[in-house]
Amino acid sequence: MARVALLSNPQSTGNRSLLPRVRAFCAENHDIFHYEVEHASQIGEALRTIARVRPSILVVNGGDGTVQTTLTELYHGEHFGGTPPPVAVLPNGKTNLIALDLGAVGDPLEALQRIVAIAREDMAPHIVARELIALSNGEPNGRPVLGMFLGGAGLADSMLYCRNKIYPLGLPNGISHLLTLAALLISSLFGIRAAFLPPEPDPISVSVIRQGVLKGTFALLIVTTLHKLLLNWRSLPSAEKGGALQLMLVERRARTLVGAAIASLFGKLGHHKLTGVHVERGDEIVIEGERSSVILDGELFEARKGQPIVLTPTAPVPFLSLAA
Fold first, then answer.
1. Residue after which a domain boundary falls, among 62, 88, 121
2. What share of the chain has pLDDT > 70, as a percent?
């Protein structure tokens, strides 16, 4: 029985330089079962094979899309008989939000070495539970797509802008994200329209069951089940407000954006009422719009008229935290 199963996607941008080091490390460590896929469509077969070696930990080495597809297939495929191993994520994507939430930062190979060391000891102190976001169109017989971080409204437009116009420049991720943030603030605060800036977001309607409906044009829409949040956003415990899904909406108004930026800077965002900033928790969130994009862990979806996006939480899934 392999202690650690490593699922790698060689097509991931980060793996172009990392994968030779990973292969060499795996060759020297017989506790690791290494499976490589060339495309996301092969992940289901990969998990069926991995289940046969009964690993103690499943490690995902790829970008956001690889992680999202693995979580979806792991949850729906039942390859491990309803008791999947805890999942660890190497910090090898463009944004690394899930890896960051699980305490995996820095060199991905060093994180893998730490995971292997944990697998040889008592793993219990490192196991944490996280709900996943199930995204569907509301049809009862559909197969939801699963992830942990969803961005919509102006944030989704900015993420697409970063992916399509900034990343191709070949700049480091940190600089790329700063340039994207600057472009978002310029277009939102000053109302400037240009081909080199993110587009103006379309109006949307966001419904949180038992909390009400919010309509308007928003600079930011975030839904997540992560514990380490963006923008120094401090979420309230679920027991205080109810629901596993954490929602933040920031209206696209200059005064609101400036206030949110200041609150974020001092770690107050989400804990003090701020006009135009809406923070909620719920167990079902419905996003409607004429044609509004959302991005769930790197994959693009669209809400259209009569075809809303419905978000619900799954039961808790085990993960391996390096921060524990």
1. 121
2. 88
